[in-house]
Specification:
four-stranded antiparallel beta sheet, 3 domains, alpha+beta, Chloramphenicol Acetyltransferase, Dihydrolipoamide Transferase, about 425 residues
Length: about 425
Amino acid sequence: MSLLEMKVPSPGESISEVEIAAWLVANGDYVEKDQAIAEVDSDKATLELPAEESGIITLKAAEGDVVKVGQVVCLIDTSAARPAGAPVVAVVPASEAKAVPAAAPAVAAPNPDPIKPASYAAGAASPAAAKIIKENNINPALVKASGKDGRITKQDVVAAMSAGFSTEAAQGWGGSREQSREKMSMLRRKIAERLVSVKNETAMLTTFNEVDMKPIMDVRAKYKDAFAKHHEVNLGFMSFFTKAVTEALKLFPAVNAQIDGTEMILHDYADIGIAVSSPKGLMVPVVRNAEQMSLAEIEREIKRLAIKARDGKITPEDMTGGTFTITNGGVFGSMLSTPIINPPQSAILGMHNIVERPVAINGKVEIRPIMYVALSYDHRIIDGKESVGFLVKVKEMLENPERMIFGSKDPLQILLGL
């Protein structure tokens, strides 16, 4: 017997432990090399753990266990032959799937006491899938199962959510008055810790403004079909906001800065975090060097990152290093909110829903599509003048989209050399 120890690899810098979110295989299963065998939660993202070799697997940790980086979590008997009738699992190479890097070289070990194999009835959901089903109030009967023995996998639920559900998908109240208790994921615990620290350690203040979205909506209505055909990506509001933000950050660099002890770190670039909703919760992947991108490039990058977050393939590298964040509560119907700063950044812009409201235009009342916007900022580093000026500049560029082409100046000002 030749046993291979599989150790927890490091998901990223400064991460010392992870949580076994779900085993994707059962104890005693035959696994293929590079097959995803587990999902592990760090305090930044959920990653898949691939098998280093083919063989019979013996689990050494249970779901929900917190394990140290470098700790042995399973053994693989590489000398074992494939059992007769065992299904062949299609495996995407780690280089293509961007899975967790291979762990340290393994050494032989004595045969351990096996963990009791997991068993699932047909139609049952794996722990990871069951969690998503519960969080999103989904009827499991409407999810097509593809796992072993008819088990519903996490990928099945994500695929079903992407395809959309009818009103029958929502589960009603049972009226049983029962209670349940579940452990917060490592990611959720870290988010909670960071949010509390932001409230306690920053002088957070929020300033508001409103944006007349008619000019942007007119541009989209006129060019969206040609844009989609030419660039193979849809033209959304987020690219306009990202572009307006990068131009405003150029004029107000303190909004793009952060505090490090007694020093202020200024950035000569804009790495914009875009808050996106995923089955695991709110994720903030980063669009790097957004100040150099066109609208089409921004849309493509946001789409790429959003798909990765939705599919649970987002990595810590995708979410680190941002200098400013944009969050859009409007997609859920939010009228107004005070977003919380994403540390160590110093500011965050909140978008909200677009509502037709009566406004005064040249002395007359007109109905316009209005969005309220909010800028939360750290008053220790950003003064009121800068925060208000920044938000006004964002408003001006959104209400005059041509200014995004020529920067913060009006095209006529450039023509006149002003």
